[in-house]
Design goal:
Strand content: 25-35%
Helix content: 25-40%
Number of domains: 3
Radius of gyration: 25 Å
Structural class: alpha+beta
Length: 352
């Protein structure tokens, strides 16, 4: 066993560890080992981000980093076990990271999420997919659901319903191969291209027997939301397929706009309280316990943001910015089944 310390570690620094396994083949043993160390740093950082940040945020954070930035965060690498065979390197690594830099990375992406959660929905990008029988279409010109949505989008005078072009760029981002597994980070190119905050995938399935029935799975995806609803529309006796599709699209637009109005009302109500902040010490036993505790606090409606100051294996120091009185905030924390000790200058919070 030996230890690599690319950066000197000083007493008192906030260090967080991640143990991972690497198995890499290279040109020779030296090349494989060098690749394994670089890959290990990325994998270990992702492991920690998955535990410390909100679900789905790890990939957003990693997308902002290159190998130089990641290596700068590494405080030490310990090889727990290794096997070298020809041009293959297989090892168990314990990699240590600078906790303060981890905190800064997570705070940055969390601030973006808080801003998105607290901001008004600007517009909805509608992605219509259509199935009749075994045939599923998305961007194909034969998709009648897409044609209906283009017309409904044009008749909607508020301008907050947008249907994409459906060209090669759109097809690269979302298509029949990945539509069932897309998440907000993978759809980011569409939000940038069309200037929207929310993407709504409306998957329509039409059956003709015994009566004409349209079933729509509506998936609304944004940085702070991921909602799924299933809607059913049965055709009237004289209603054609296209009339049924149009009725369903208009109903969905009405529902989205009502939801937008409700969310704006809630946001204005939450933002109306006095601005306050409190120093909190989160007592934790494992990284998953911190992930769950952080999620409960950040989801409280009066919380604007959480600023992490330091991370250690047993404690996280943070400043929580919130709206309203300290008493109402304390009651909300206790109602989330968290333990709370209120001291004069700081609070201590932990899971039950």
């Amino acid at each position: 066993m030996f230890i690599l310390l690319p950066v000197q570690v000083f007493a008192g620094e906030s260090i967080v560890n991640s143990q991972i396994e690497v198995d890499v083949t290279g040109k020779d043993a030296v090349d494989a080992r060098n690749q394994a160390m670089e890959k290990g740093a990325v994998d270990a950082l992702k492991d920690l981000l998955d535990k410390l940040s909100q679900p789905g945020q790890a990939q957003d954070i990693l997308a902002t980093l290159d190998s130089r930035k990641i290596n700068k965060m590494v405080k030490g690498t310990e090889v727990l076990d290794e096997k070298i065979s020809g041009n293959r390197y297989h090892a168990q690594l314990m990699i240590s990271f600078d906790g303060e830099e981890l905190s800064a990375l997570i705070d940055k992406i969390n601030q973006q999420a808080m801003d998105d959660r607290g901001s008004t929905v600007s517009s909805f990008l509608i992605i219509p997919t259509y199935q009749e029988g075994n045939q599923i279409t998305i961007w194909d010109k034969s998709n009648p659901w897409q044609a209906v949505w283009k017309n409904v989008g044009l008749e909607n005078t508020s301008g907050d319903v947008i249907v994409p072009y459906g060209d090669a760029k759109d097809n690269m981002t979302i298509n029949s191969d990945n539509i069932s597994s897309v998440i907000f980070s993978s759809l980011a190119p569409l939000t940038i291209r069309y200037g929207v905050t929310d993407i709504v995938i409306v998957q329509a399935k039409l059956t003709q027997q015994p009566d004409m029935l349209l079933t729509v799975t509506k998936k609304r995806i944004s940085r702070g939301r991921n909602e799924i609803n299933i809607l059913s529309y049965r055709a009237d006796p004289q209603e054609t397929r296209d009339l049924l599709l149009t009725r369903a699209a208009r109903d969905i637009v009405t529902g989205l706009q009502h939801k937008k109005t409700e969310e704006l009302s809630v946001t204005q109500s939450v933002r109306g309280g006095d601005r306050n902040k409190i120093m909190m010490l989160a007592s934790i036993s494992t990284m998953p316990s911190w992930t769950q505790l952080r999620k409960k606090i950040s989801e409280l409606p009066m919380v604007d943001r959480i600023e992490m100051l330091a991370i250690s294996p047993k404690q996280v120091d943070m400043v929580v910015y919130y709206r309203g009185s300290p008493d109402s905030f304390a009651r909300a924390i206790l109602a989330s089944n968290l333990r709370l000790i209120q001291n004069k200058d700081y609070w201590v919070v932990s899971r039950d």
